[in-house]
Design brief:
about 110 residues, alpha+beta, five-stranded antiparallel sheet, about 35% helix
């Protein structure tokens, strides 16, 4: 685990409900991917393992959690958004929106498949 203090600064600067969402996602990533790299890139927390895999970003009304190769993820319910060829994302407005089991599946797919 490469724990970046700048990421903690980014998360702490967010609104309280966004902070809770980002800390929850971050915890899942660290638990599932012990050798994950964490850094601020392009102004947001980015998580990598050999290459950039996913990022999260706080916006005014939501947190976006995105996968750089999101089109490769299994999404039979069409939850992931994005019109690009590669990147897909999901938006969370409150912690209750975070389906931890589904997010864990995508994290494992994104990092290990």
């Amino acid at each position: 685990m490469n724990d970046d203090p700048k990421v903690i600064e980014y998360i702490n600067a967010a609104q309280s409900h966004q902070k809770e969402i980002m800390l929850t996602i971050r915890k899942m990533i660290f638990e599932l991917v012990p050798d994950v790299g964490e850094a601020i890139k392009w102004g947001t927390p980015v998580y990598s393992r050999i290459k950039n895999i996913c990022y999260m970003a706080a916006f005014k009304k939501h947190v976006t959690f995105a996968f750089y190769n999101g089109q490769m993820l299994k999404d039979p319910d069409g939850i992931l958004e994005g019109t690009g060829k590669m990147m897909k994302h999901i938006k969370f407005k409150k912690i209750e929106d975070v389906d931890q089991e589904q997010i864990k599946k995508w994290i494992l797919e994104g990092f290990y498949v």
